[in-house]
Amino acid sequence: MKSRKHLYICSRHFEEKCIVQGKKCHLVHGSIPTKFLPVALHSNAVKPRKEPSFREPPVVPERVRYLDFEDFRKTTALNRESLHAVIKAHCDWGETWLVDDADVSLLQLPNYQFLWKGASASSHGGVALYIKNNIQYSIMPTSIDSSLWEGIFVEIKMTSLHKDIIIGSVYRPPHNMSEDRMNFIEEFSQTLQLFHHNNTDLYIAGDYNFDLLKISHNTSTLHYFTSITSSGLDPLITLPTRITDNSHTLIDNIFTNSPQSTSLSGILTTQISDHQLCFTSLPIKTNKQTHNKYITITHRPHNIDELMLLDLQNIDIYSRLNTDPHTDPTENCHTL
């Protein structure tokens, strides 16, 4: 204990030779306690770290995934109405290599309008759109005539859509000069501002030649992505779209201001090009009302399963399909 003038400690912690006896005992100078010292109540040894438990690899989100054409066909059959807007309404095509006076007769498709703009920023440029004949559309005017990128924008009005939409096809050649990249970002942002006053959903697809996989360590790519998102657009594609033996990059994308309105987005794998095909689909309104029809069966044959299988085998489905190569491919889908 401690008083105002003195400090008292317990003598039982010291050897006898450390204590000078007298009327008031005191310690030999330099003595240290060695007896009845407290003992540690637990070990300080580091316990071995537990082995990490096995974790399944992350699942690719359903809204963004790779599909081959067979998977896409099956998905179309299961979600025919949801995919109507992307399959039957429009398709964009970038890097057409077309010039302004090109003969595009060979590129015409039955039942579709072919809208295109010749290459101006690069001899490998050019953009185009296919629009279904029965769809009302208008080409959007843009005030920017750039030597850095090319684009065509169309407003589509469909009663089956929940609201009007603007679709665009964009191509930016792979100019890697920092000044060219920054000028494109500025020009493209100005173009997006032109559409903000419209109460429409935007879907801008194209080859931008900015690799979003490098967003964390490339300043211009980060600036590009920040500019896009600041304009209220989000990317629908988050996986590599151009895959070679030596690299994989995310340079093709579809940007929209209404990602919640899409029912499915993804990448179609194909050997046609090293650029994979990006797609998105929009839900449509339908006026069809289904009425359940109940049938009462009073007698059920014991071999009903065999009879049903026999009926299916006797249906000559191929005779009902249109084999004309120029026909609309969705016609057979409806037949099926």
UniProtKB/TrEMBL annotation:
Organism from which the protein derives: Capitella teleta
Signal sequence interval, chain numbering: none
Endonuclease/exonuclease/phosphatase domain mapped to chain residues: 95-275
Coiled-coil portions: none
Classification of source organism: Eukaryota, Metazoa, Spiralia, Lophotrochozoa, Annelida
Domain of life: Eukaryota
Xref: PANTHER family: ENDO/EXONUCLEASE/PHOSPHATASE DOMAIN-CONTAINING PROTEIN, ENDONUCLEASE_EXONUCLEASE_PHOSPHATASE DOMAIN-CONTAINING PROTEIN
Any GO MF annotation of the entry: catalytic activity
Name assigned to this protein: Endonuclease/exonuclease/phosphatase domain-containing protein
